[in-house]
Recover the amino acids of this structure.
């Protein structure tokens, strides 16, 4: 019968792949993949089985944190490389990700505002809304939602009133 008591490991104890997976909250296949792509250092083998140092849990935690922040595995590899040898690569990667996040935030805010406008628009048929029609025209001209939505609405305080033109 499995114990519900927390794992207590001796100092220097090596973790099996299952123990590391449970501790980090990931699958064993994820750990093998992290190892394959070079994010998780190859473990020692004991009787052919992977054995990880306890510090591997922090490495997996770092991978998960970077994933939560939106970094790809390739970007994570650059971030996890020693900074001394990468000469600014860490900073360039982080700055590129910030710019990407700013763009995603702008798209999400524009989408939110467009949907809010659609909910407040007094036109029974949204295709009769001059702002919606202008947005369709702008999209067909190659402009994305954030650009066309800012241009169309100019941050008007009462979009429904502006729509009643």
């Amino acid at each position: 019968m499995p114990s519900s008591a927390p794992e207590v490991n001796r100092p220097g104890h090596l973790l099996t792949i299952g123990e590391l997976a449970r501790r980090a909250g990931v699958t064993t296949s994820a750990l093998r993949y992290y190892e394959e792509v070079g994010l998780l250092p190859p473990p020692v083998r004991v009787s052919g089985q992977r054995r990880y140092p306890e510090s591997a849990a922090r490495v997996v935690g770092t991978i998960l944190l970077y994933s939560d922040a939106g970094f790809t595995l390739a970007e994570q590899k650059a971030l996890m490389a020693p900074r001394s040898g990468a000469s600014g690569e860490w900073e360039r990667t982080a700055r590129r990700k910030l710019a990407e996040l700013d763009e995603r935030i702008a798209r999400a805010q524009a989408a939110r505002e467009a949907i809010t406008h659609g909910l407040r628009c007094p036109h029974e048929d949204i295709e009769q809304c001059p702002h919606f029609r202008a947005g369709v025209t702008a999209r067909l001209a190659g402009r994305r939602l954030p650009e066309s939505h800012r241009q169309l609405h100019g941050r008007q305080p009462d979009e429904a009133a502006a729509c009643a033109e």
Observations:
- The chain has a mean pLDDT of 82.
- Residues 47 and 163 are 72 Å apart (CA to CA).
- DSSP finds nine helices and three strands in the chain.
- The two ends are 72 Å apart (CA to CA).
